[in-house]
Design goal:
Helix 3 crosses helix 5, helix 3 crosses helix 7 and helix 4 packs across helix 7. Strands 2-1-5-4-3 form a five-stranded antiparallel sheet, sandwiched between helices. Strand 3 and strand 4 form a beta hairpin. The protein is globular, with a radius of gyration of 15 Å. It has about 160 residues and is of the alpha+beta class. It has seven helices and five strands; from the N terminus they run E-H-H-E-H-E-E-H-H-H-H-E.
Length: about 160
């Protein structure tokens, strides 16, 4: 399983990413990851998968569920078109929508979403410990999105596959 990370970035960096080809996107993301100067970030580790599934319909897919909750992990403009990496970008308006939406998701609501996950599609980690791990990472993500929204930042989500 791959590790997911959200980064809050400024408009100039977002514009550079939007104008880049696949190779340039990968290089820019690497630069953001390595330098991370003035860049807010939130590591969701392996929990990104369960968070997305819990906020949508229990499955892993770009178009699953409903906006704005489906934008939190895989939503927005897909900046990289490869099988080995995902980079998606949310504009400040979408970041604000996502921040407002996740602020309203409590533990019981996330658990209800988690319980909708198709265990055969998800894998053997499903269960109480995995949900506790998912919840802990989700609460960090709620704080991250609020800070990014308040700062008027764009957000990218990255995960290598």
């Amino acid at each position: 399983m791959s590790l997911g990370v959200h980064f809050a970035i400024d408009e100039k960096t977002a514009d550079r990413l939007l104008a880049a080809d696949d190779d340039e996107v990968a290089a820019l993301v690497e630069e953001i990851e390595e330098e991370a100067i003035g860049v807010g970030h939130c590591d969701t580790d392996k929990a990104w998968d369960a968070i997305h599934r819990s906020l949508t319909d229990g499955y892993l897919g770009y178009d699953n569920g409903f906006y704005p909750l489906n934008a939190v992990i895989l939503g927005g403009v897909q900046l990289y078109e490869g099988d080995d990496y995902i980079v998606s970008l949310l504009t400040p308006d979408r970041v604000r929508d996502a921040a407002d939406a996740v602020a309203d998701v409590g533990r019981e609501a996330l658990k209800a979403g988690y319980d909708r996950i198709d265990i055969e599609d998800y894998g053997p980690n499903f269960g109480h410990e995995d949900f506790a791990y998912t919840w802990a990472n989700f609460t960090d993500l709620v704080v991250f999105f609020r800070q990014a929204a308040d700062a008027g930042s764009h957000v990218i989500f990255t995960v290598d596959q």
